[in-house]
Design goal:
By secondary structure, this protein is mainly β. The protein has a single domain (5-411), classed as Pectate Lyase C-like (3 Solenoid). 5% of the residues lie in helices and 51% in strands. The strands form three sheets. The chain has a 24-stranded mixed sheet that branches. It has a 13-stranded parallel sheet with strand order 5-8-11-14-17-20-23-26-28-30-33-35-37. A two-stranded antiparallel ribbon has the order 1-2.
């Protein structure tokens, strides 16, 4: 339909129906604001195709553009230099559908359809650049990048289910983005099978991540890494997550460093189920149900290092996961060095060294532990060596080092 006119209505969106022939409205604030939005997809697609042929930047006049679906199959630079251009998502399809190399999208404001499938979808796009854009008020995943490489930086993402989904990529960089008020997850770096990935995630601000879809860990995370090896996560500020700030599952050689984390309702930093060779260093964790957990009992390969972290105010129960019944600032099982960490105000254990028979090749030394019930809980069941030495204890409520068999304390105070 040529020059189709749409007025978007949030009430119709929530019913999952979009009626093109009815006068509808959408509300963007506490006061209803009705905006007539013309479907200008053909106009914008023509401008893109013209820029591709000319090898120039896409040129658009300031204004409001209703978009059903734009297709980018050739290299193009779509950089908005001035304010005043807004794209409104009129269909369930992403606004931008990219399947070309050397595509740049920059400076674009996009307002989503709450029933839509995100705003940007790139598949097999190398040297992709998405930057300086504002994406808000949509459904699904704001930005999806599959089998691609490139950079996502300085974008503001708000009001989606998931902020960024990076799948089967190589050497992607995700940095200086703001991700807020997301109902399920912040940044996902996943692979179809385990393998080298190399994504770098740094200097992002992630806040208010929910777990609308439920479960006990797949949702509610600021950053989630799954099957992706050699991922580097550093210098992010992450707060108010329903589950974890950073959660790694079956991810090898992940580096997690210099992140500032607060207000996590489950484990703040989690490297679980087949993850090994993880470096968790120089992070600050404040106010969480649990601090750092590395339950890597099923994989003996690769030494994990937990060093120079500052962990405080661990309260020991989770309002979202009833399985979390006691607090630890740090909990490890095998092939891990825990050293030079500062731990304070924990409603439970400072460090749990081993869990039942899953206790092997552990070194716990030079940590400063204060204001906790039990300084270090050492498993008495595991067969492997556990070295505990040169730790400093202050304001220990019960015991400095106790022996445990799973949940049960079997020795109140042991020397090492």
């Amino acid at each position: 339909m040529k020059n189709k006119q749409l007025i978007l209505n949030r009430r119709s969106f929530t019913k999952g129906v979009l009626y093109a022939s009815l006068p509808l409205s959408i509300s963007f604030s506490s006061k209803a604001q009705k905006i007539n939005i013309a479907d200008r997809t053909a106009e914008v697609q023509a401008a893109i195709d013209k820029a591709v042929r000319a090898g120039s930047n896409v040129e658009l006049e300031a204004g409001i553009y209703g978009i059903s679906k734009l297709v980018l199959t050739s290299s193009v630079n779509f950089s908005v230099k001035s304010k005043g251009i807004k794209f409104y998502q009129l269909s369930h399809e992403p606004i931008f559908n990219i399947s070309a190399d050397n595509v740049t999208l920059s400076g674009i404001e996009m307002i989503g359809n709450p029933q839509g499938a995100g705003l940007i979808h790139a598949d097999n796009s190398q040297k992709l650049v998405l930057s300086h854009s504002n994406l808000h008020s949509g459904g699904g995943t704001a930005i999806t990048a599959i089998r691609s490489s490139g950079q996502l930086y300085d974008n503001a993402i708000k009001g989606f289910d998931v902020g960024i989904y990076a799948y089967d990529n190589k050497n992607f960089s995700i940095y200086q983005n703001s991700l807020r008020h997301l109902s399920d997850n912040g940044i996902l770096v996943w692979r179809s099978v385990s393998g080298a990935d190399g994504t770098r995630i740094f200097d992002n601000q992630i806040d208010n991540i929910g777990a609308k879809s439920g479960g006990n860990g797949p949702y509610g995370n600021g950053i989630n890494v799954f099957r992706a090896d050699d991922v580097n996560i550093f210098n992010n500020k992450i707060s108010d997550c329903a589950f974890s700030a950073i959660r790694c599952n079956n991810a090898q050689r992940t580096s997690i460093s210099y992140n500032k984390i607060s207000d996590c309702k489950e484990v703040a930093l989690y490297a679980e189920f087949g993850s090994y060779g993880t470096n968790i260093t120089n992070n600050e964790i404040n106010n969480a149900a649990y601090g750092i957990s590395v339950p890597n009992q099923d994989n003996p390969k690769g030494m994990t290092l937990i060093e120079n972290n500052i962990i405080s105010n661990i309260y020991g129960y989770s309002p979202v996961n009833p399985d979390v019944k006691e607090a630890s600032a740090i909990s490890v099982e095998r092939n891990t060095i825990v050293r030079n960490n500062r731990i304070s105000n924990v409603n439970g254990f400072g460090i749990r060294a081993g869990w039942g028979e899953f206790a092997n090749e552990l070194e716990v030394y030079n940590n400063k532990i204060s204001d906790v019930k039990i300084g270090i809980a050492k498993s008495m069941v595991g067969s492997g060596p556990i070295l505990i030495k040169n730790n400093i204890f202050q304001k220990i409520h019960d015991y400095r080092i106790s022996g445990y068999e799973w949940h049960s304390r079997v020795k109140d105070e042991i020397d090492k």
